[in-house]
TrEMBL record:
Originating organism: Nothobranchius furzeri
Family statement drawn from the similarity comment of this UniProt entry: Belongs to the aldehyde dehydrogenase family.
SUPFAM superfamilies according to UniProt: ALDH-like
Location of the active site: E208, C242
Matches recorded under Pfam families: Aldedh
Gene3D superfamilies for the chain: Aldehyde Dehydrogenase, Chain A, domain 1, Aldehyde Dehydrogenase, Chain A, domain 2
Name of protein: Aldehyde dehydrogenase
Amino acid sequence: MERQVFQRTREAFLSGRTRPLEFRLQQLHALQKMITEKETEISTALKQDINRSQYDTPLLELIGIENEIKLAIEKLSDWAAPRPVEKNLLTISDEVYVQPEPLGVVLIIGAWNYPWSLTLQPLVGAIAAGNAAVVKPSELSECSSLLLRALLPRYVDKDLYPVVIGGASETQELLRLRFDHVFYTGSSRVGKLVMEAAAHHLTPVTLELGGKSPCYIDKNSDVRIACRRVTWGKFVNCGQTCIAPDYILCEPCIQGQVVECIRQTLLEFYGADPKCSPDYGRIINQRHFNRILSLMEGYTPVVGGQSDSSQCYIAPTVLKDVPPHSRLMQEEIFGPVLPIVTVSDMDDAISFINEREKPLALYVFCSDKKAIKRMIEETTSGGVTVNDVMMHYTLSSLPFGGVGQSGVGCYHGKHTFDRLSHHRACLVRSLNMESVNLARYPPQDRRRARRARMALRSPLIDMSKRTLIWAVVATILGVCLSIALLVILLIAAGLNCTCWYWRGFYN
């Protein structure tokens, strides 16, 4: 089944119909139409999958997809255009440029926590770059997967962008096939398996993974506002967000204030019983429910801690004085549990972060610009947001992706287009001016070698319009000045000769 889908998609790509920009634009408009027309159905599916509020779905997923589509439609002609590059003396008369071209057939393996955004945003880039794509949504978000399979063929080319549903066996079968790129969003554990399978065909991958994203709250920051923003980022989507703050680092002197501010914010956001709040979600399934509860074993929550297995409900939970080497601090929580780890100062926080795997996101709440700069310079992460959480994800101009264990490659906006394109080096020259090439041909001698060496060592020349105009102007001015200087010298020489003549005449 999967092999047949792949073969059909490959044949559709080889037909060449994804090459024209007009076709890509038409497909992007169709995808935009699907999001607009089917928003209610999409929201209903997410309500069934993870109890997502109908108001959160547009904010957390659909608007982001629409923005990506609009940007791609607006900028596609620029993104896909040849990109002139600098030349040297040997290529000064040649046409030299980088041409983005489609990779081929891309496999997109989506995630269940944001099943529309994390599946369709890569698809937007794949379409814009002129690729075909086999879309494999997560089987865990079952209602969304079935709806995507039903909707997508009604709006976009069903041969170029088929949807394959199923579990691990179907995904493994797809990974055995020779795709031109694999785009996976999910856990680091599965990411390693995807990379291993892709390596068999030397297929490039983009892995959007996760990890433990730290959140440092400085004692001199506005703790109340910091906790308000952290509370939203941690507990939205029931904590099932790859860039949610995984844990808080703060000094012991403000730990009690942090706990109390989070408690008050939760009361404001979800009421006295979050279980009854229409804005609070549920854990995706029983397995993940049990996994999160097992991480909490041995701790007494200072906030929350209640659970209901029948609904896969876990209350927003805060744990304080969590030991740095506990199991809770060894794996990504991916749920509504927020541990607080105390550090002595910012130096200790930086060391704590650097001793662990590179996180997907880093959050810093601080009012001191020098301290903020230091935190950014002395740590590393996929992305960083200062005095807020997760907002760097919303900007298409910023690359989104991890580093090290938190991911390989980045996307969003033009970054997705570039990630799913081959940047082809192109040099076009004529068969004229063969004398220029003589220095590189045998038989070689010292004179020819010197000429070739000088040409190859020449600085790169920017042939962009503005630079070229200034270069021409400078050349003309230089020639004019040289001519003027020569005329002055000739005049001076002429006057000198005349003086000698008349002096000789009178003498």
